[in-house]
Amino acid sequence: MDQVPGSPQEPKDARGGDGLPACYRHPDRTTGIHCTRCEKPICPDCMVSASVGFHCPDCVRSGGGTGRSATATQPRTLAGSAIAANPRLITLILMGLNVAVFIAVRAEGARLLSELGMLGRTPPGYLPQGVAEGEWYRLVTAMFLHQEIPHIAFNMLSLWWLGPPLEAALGRLRFTALYMLSGLGGSALTYLVADPAGFSLGASGAIFGLLGATAVLMRRLRYDMKPVLILLGLNLVFTFTWPNISWQAHIGGLVVGAAVAYGMVHAPRGRRNLVQAATCAVALLAIVAVVWVRTLQLVG
């Protein structure tokens, strides 16, 4: 049906004097909030709280499935995933894996640390070990490895705080991809620029990736950016001033996490799955390329 000028649907793309769009139901009110399902601009009187962001009255009414197919009316996250009953499941699984490995390390001691930690290559004269020697699994296992209680406590508290909102916004599969790629990005940058004989471990790279993704998500939803920017700034200061911290893992995770999250939440609706898959594939290929180039430098 063609829209009639002046009808209630027309103001969807209207702009006010401040450059913000007008609420699709109240043309005289500009707003920076959009429905997380259909992306129509909505004012405070029209916002209906959802698990992530807000929905417009039309999407809330259509949730029952009348007049549309079940696929069209199924609630979706901002990134296009089905809304899960438990938006903390993957976060809890990741925390469980980290705690389980920590308990194993406390039981086994230095042997497990030396076998699973992030190590590029040992100096000449030592038993060959490290990623350069073909032990690529260290890029992954180091992400779940902690030695001290304060280390794992801080990382797990950060994961519990950052994980559930991102898992709810992205969906389980996309959140898992974000976490793993962020951690791999931190391991890859560490491998590239740090001392290859240096030893590193911890989930900090993945956590910084979640922090970068949180900033991207908040900007996408037009929320106040000050809290997350202040938190990010404090963590970066801590990264570069506190001793024995692998800044490479933090920066690598932050960059990859922000980039992957941007591709996920800004993917056009008509090609959402394709763009999101391509974003993850490009990030993974970049990580593999970094590791491959560094390996050639160390063994060539």
UniProtKB/TrEMBL annotation:
Subcellular location: Membrane
Entry-linked SUPFAM superfamilies: B-box zinc-binding domain (SSF57845), Rhomboid-like (SSF144091)
Keywords per UniProt: Hydrolase, Membrane, Protease, Transmembrane, Transmembrane helix
Start and end residues of each stretch annotated as Disordered: 1-21
Membrane-related topology note: Multi-pass membrane protein
Keyword Nucleotide-binding: no
Record-level GO BP terms: proteolysis
InterPro entries per record: Peptidase_S54_rhomboid_dom, Rhomboid-like_sf, Rhomboid_protease_S54
Name of the protein this chain belongs to: Rhomboid family intramembrane serine protease
GO terms under cellular component: membrane
Residue ranges of the TM segments: 89-107, 175-193, 199-218, 225-243, 249-267, 274-293
Keyword Hydrolase on entry: yes
Coiled coil residues, start to end: none
Domain Peptidase S54 rhomboid: from-to ranges: 134-265
MF (Gene Ontology): serine-type endopeptidase activity
Lineage of producing organism: Bacteria, Bacillati, Actinomycetota, Actinomycetes, Kitasatosporales
Family: Belongs to the peptidase S54 family.
